[in-house]
Write a structure and sequence with these properties.
- The complex is a heterodimer of chains A (520) and B (185).
- With 520 residues, chain A is α+β, with helices and mostly antiparallel strands.
- Helices cover 39% and strands 17% of the residues of chain A.
- In chain A, helix 7 (252-280) packs antiparallel against helix 8.
- Chain A is globular, with a radius of gyration of 23 Å.
- In chain B, strand 1, helix 3 and strand 2 (89-91) form a beta-alpha-beta unit.
- Chain B has helices at residues 7-16, 24-53, 69-76, 112-121, 133-137, 168-181, and strands at residues 57-63, 89-91, 100-104, 107-108, 127-131, 147-149, 159-161.
- The chains are: A alpha+beta (520), B alpha/beta (185).
- The interface between A and B is large, with 71 and 63 residues.
Chain lengths: 520, 185
């Protein structure tokens, strides 16, 4: 139907869906997202096609579903558009288990139901929301929905594990540490975890709906707030989608600076993962040294653009004018120093027997999970995958300069520790490379926002982040973000089985997923 | 391009291929200034905490809708460069052990109940501190179907620390200002 820089779009009929998806799976393609769009491309308004023209219907206009697939052999993503709002939808969760999450998300947001789904519980809407509330429908006004007393949603049913001596440990949403809220339900025999169910959604802020009706410039701040330690990459993904729609060319210098910013963010985010891992196995000496390094990089962010989280560094068309050559030179020096210091710490940590004892064979993510759960980022790369959005679907400066690659085979905490160490190192080197070759020139292109839609994929510190933006009449019609955390969270449920409860914190930290980035 | 490749840069590139040479002193040199700053504030903070709480101020953190940046900054307060524990501030694991709550994020519908319960579980007298723009006013989330608003729409707030997110220095100084304004027991 349409082909652009990042994706090929095809229309599909409801009756063809299941066998098409099966065929795609056999070809080795991986489902990475499904999302709903109401009134897609405005075709319903014309009323000249199929079931179109049902505007005014009390159900509202039609909801299309977009199935996004990744093809390992192609730089472009594949998008199937299913325009069908009437009757039942076929669940494809039997083919790609991860589809269950996406389908539950669509069921919450748009009120569609899927036949043959193995899980039909609500996902991001909690009991506080009325049962028939579907916020992403256009007819639902965006205003506070304090539920009327007496009609709360159905209570959430956790999976039950039964048998003698099985007991449950409920944890959260308020945790013991300074972290985000989420609920973990462990089923345990003795000390061994036999089942874990993660329930998220506590941080659901209505982000996608909030972006609707705003100009792209206004929505930048919203995209930045998806997840604090991934502000820059989510902002970049959003901007790339808007730039593609509007045909904006980002100047070369801005592309280089974006690369620097994204890698800086990756380095400090992953550094805190390393620090968290060694903290959780009671090795605070190395944790302290790693947090010092992280702090140094965060201060570089402050120096670059006035934000320790690189907020506002990237804008539509380029990067902030506040970034000076002097600050970049400072960053160049610091990244070299941090790299040396990191080498020393990592070499030391990985030579301590008690560290290896706790890390090795703990929390193994089996490679089979990667394609069925659409895992990406360090979680996938520590289990033998080479997938990296920067090289598989290159964007910006990554088209010109290939970043350093790392891969580990073990799939355990040790593999994730070593992998993250190598990735930080590669990021710091890449920053230095970019800063040596950075061209002069303007840092922001001319932006004239046009209508249309586009998909952008970017590699965040946690894996692939997808941003789909549709602009109509100069304002956002639909914004869908799918962070790596959304899919990667469910790897934990599998990784902890057979481990002891006391190892859960270090397994969790070794993935360090974002709660806010999942709940949106 | 010319101005960027300076002698120091070339030197650093050359150093990349040499054996790493790093010492702890090299690290502290760069961060000296900020550390002194927080040191001065810290000493004053310690004085106020001794005056008001006897020895220490125990804080429980609750995230009610933050994007996790504020959590990271609060975590940084315990990192070696800020190390607020030396001034008598501890982050505790349970609200029942806390003198104060630090709440981040605009309160989401799903977290409102948990926040109320945490507040009720904290023994009185208690202090509530809203950390970050979202926690202070609801910030950019105002008008969303999923957000009640700032922390003060759910529980009474004593101190608001604005920022997106506020830096560790700002948090430390704001704490000091608040404690100074409190009268002796």
């Amino acid at each position: 139907m349409k082909e652009d820089q990042t994706a090929r779009y095809y229309r599909i009929e409801g009756r063809d869906l299941v066998h098409t998806v099966k065929a795609l799976k056999e070809e080795g393609k991986i489902l990475i997202s499904i999302f709903g769009v109401e009134d897609f491309e405005g075709e319903d308004r014309g009323g000249d096609e199929g079931d179109g023209g049902r505007v005014g219907d009390e159900r509202g206009s039609e909801c299309s579903q977009l199935y996004v697939f990744e093809d390992q052999g192609s730089e472009k993503l594949l998008v199937l558009i299913l325009q069908q709002d009437n009757g039942l939808h076929h669940s494809i969760s039997g083919i790609f288990p991860v589809a269950s999450l996406f389908e539950r998300e669509i069921a919450d947001g748009f009120g569609l139901s899927f036949s043959g789904a193995f899980d039909t519980r609500r996902l991001f809407l909690h009991e506080a929301y009325p049962q028939d509330f579907h916020p992403l429908r256009k007819r639902v006004q965006n205003c506070l929905t304090v539920p009327e007393r007496g009609m709360p949603g159905e209570p959430y049913r956790f999976r039950t594990i039964e048998g003698s001596s099985v007991y449950q440990i409920p944890v959260g949403p308020v945790h013991a540490g300074i972290i985000e809220p989420g609920h973990f339900r462990f089923s345990v025999i003795g000390e061994t975890i036999v089942n874990l169910e993660v329930r998220l959604g506590f941080l659901h802020r209505g982000l996608e709906k909030l972006a609707e009706g705003r100009t792209p410039d206004e929505a930048v701040q919203i995209a930045e707030s998806i997840s604090g330690d991934e502000s820059a990459v989510n902002n970049c993904g959003f901007c790339m989608a808007v730039e593609q729609i509007s045909g904006v060319t980002v100047p070369p210098r801005a592309e280089y600076i974006r690369g620097v910013i994204l890698e800086l963010e990756r380095a400090y985010s992953l550094l805190s993962d390393l620090a968290g891992m060694v903290t959780d196995i009671a090795h605070p000496v190395s944790a302290s040294r790693l947090t010092v390094l992280r702090e140094r990089l965060q201060r570089e962010g402050d120096l670059l653009c006035g934000s320790r989280f690189l907020k506002g560094a990237i804008c539509i068309g380029g990067v902030s004018e506040l970034i000076t050559g002097q600050a970049l030179e400072h960053l160049f020096r610091t990244s070299g120093e941090v790299e040396h210091e990191l080498d020393e710490i990592a070499e030391w940590v990985l030579s301590i027997p008690s560290v290896i004892d706790r890390f090795s064979t703990t929390g193994v993510v089996q490679p089979e999970l990667i394609s069925s759960l659409a895992l990406s980022g360090p979680v996938a790369r520590a289990s033998g995958s080479f997938a990296d959005t920067r090289t598989d679907h290159p964007y910006g400066v990554y088209r010109e300069r290939v970043p350093g690659q790392a891969c580990e085979q073990g799939g355990d905490v040790l593999a994730r520790f070593s992998l993250k160490y190598q990735e930080i190192r590669a990021s710091l080197r890449y920053i230095q490379e970019l800063l040596v070759f950075i061209p002069e020139g303007p840092v922001c292109g001319e932006v004239q926002v046009r209508d249309g839609f586009a998909l952008a994929a970017a590699e965040s510190p946690r894996g692939m982040a997808l941003h789909w933006v549709s602009i109509r009449d100069g304002v956002i019609h639909r914004y869908k973000a799918r962070t790596a955390s959304f899919c990667n969270w469910y790897a934990i449920e599998h990784a902890v089985i057979g481990n002891i409860v006391a190892d859960f914190p270090v397994i969790n930290k070794s993935m360090n997923l974002s709660y806010a980035g999942t709940d949106l | 391009m010319q101005e960027l490749i300076s002698d120091t840069m070339i030197e650093t590139v050359v150093n990349l291929f040499k054996k790493p040479l790093c010492t702890d002193t090299g690290l502290i040199q760069d961060t000296n200034k900020k550390e002194e700053e927080s040191g001065e504030t810290g000493t004053a903070l310690k004085h106020e905490i001794s005056r008001l709480f006897g020895r220490s101020l125990a804080i429980r953190e609750v995230d009610c809708g933050s994007d996790n940046a504020a959590e990271i900054e609060l975590g940084n307060l315990s990192s070696p460069l800020y190390d607020l524990e030396r001034f008598g501030i501890t982050f505790v694991a349970s609200p029942r052990h806390a003198d104060a709550l630090m709440v981040t994020g605009a309160v989401t519908l799903a977290m409102a109940d948990a926040l109320r319960k945490t507040y009720d579980a904290t023994p009185s007298p208690k202090i509530v501190i809203a950390v970050g723009d979202d926690a202070c006013t609801g910030g950019i989330w105002k008008g969303s179907y999923a957000v009640l608003g700032g922390v003060d729409t759910v529980i009474p707030v004593d101190l608001k620390i604005p920022g997106n997110p506020p830096s560790p220095d700002v948090i430390t100084r704001s704490l000091l200002t608040m404690l100074r304004s409190k009268k002796d027991r």
